Amino acid sequence: EARDRNRQLADMASRAGLGEVAVNIRMGVAGTECDYGMNAESMRDLAAALPASLTSDMKMTVAALNAGCGDVKKAQALAADLAKERPDDTLMQSENVPVILALVELRQGDGAKAVERLESAKTYDRYDPWMRTLRGEAYLKAGRPSDALQELQYPLSRKDMAAVAVTYRRAQLI
Fold first, then answer.
1. Signed CA dihedral, 14, 63, 122, 151: sign only
2. CA distance 80 to 85
């Protein structure tokens, strides 16, 4: 039912001439499906949502969803494009691209490489529950449970997120 309501909302945004808003709503649905392991549905909804040309923000989302739920080669290619398009963008180079590549490493089962990829993002993600959960998952896959527990303390302490955030639930499961 939630997917149907979000699709209706995206359709309304499209009819109102808010194309980018509609795309973002649809990508959000695909992201939630990915978070819940509905990979095929996520990739189908993502493909249906995409316009002919993508903004950098859209490319980041598409790359992250492909890294976590779809085609890792496509994720890697998009990450390379983003790095090349914005060479002077510190956040892109230090956090966004490394996160995409870390998601690829996790998908391929290499937690140690994912931890290595996420190292440059530490400066920027101290209060980001999603990033801390991702790093915790990488530490766990790398065989470093005490480091994983340390990373997960922050997202698990965020009781304000508990009722609505997939991140909180994911942190509990890890």
1. positive
2. 9
Take residue 38 and report the two structure tokens written for it: 């509905």
Give the residue-averaged pLDDT of 131-155: 94
State residue 32's pLDDT score.
Answer: 84
Site of tokens 């980041």: 60
Give helix 166-173 / helix 19-35 axis angle, nearest 10°: 20
Q: Rounded CA gap, 161 and 107, in Å?
A: 26
Encoded tokens for 118: 């996420």
Q: Please check whether residue 31 is in contact with residue 65, taking contact to mean a CB–CB distance below 8 angstroms.
A: yes
How many angstroms separate the CA atoms of 135 and 111, rounded? 9
141's tokens? 């896959």
Q: What is the pLDDT of residues 145-165, one digit of tens each?
A: 999 999 999 888 877 765 556
**Phi, psi of 50, rounded to the nearest 5 degrees:** -80, 135
Name every residue whose Cβ is closer than 8 Å to that of residue 170 and which is 6 or more positions away in sequence.
Answer: 35, 133, 137
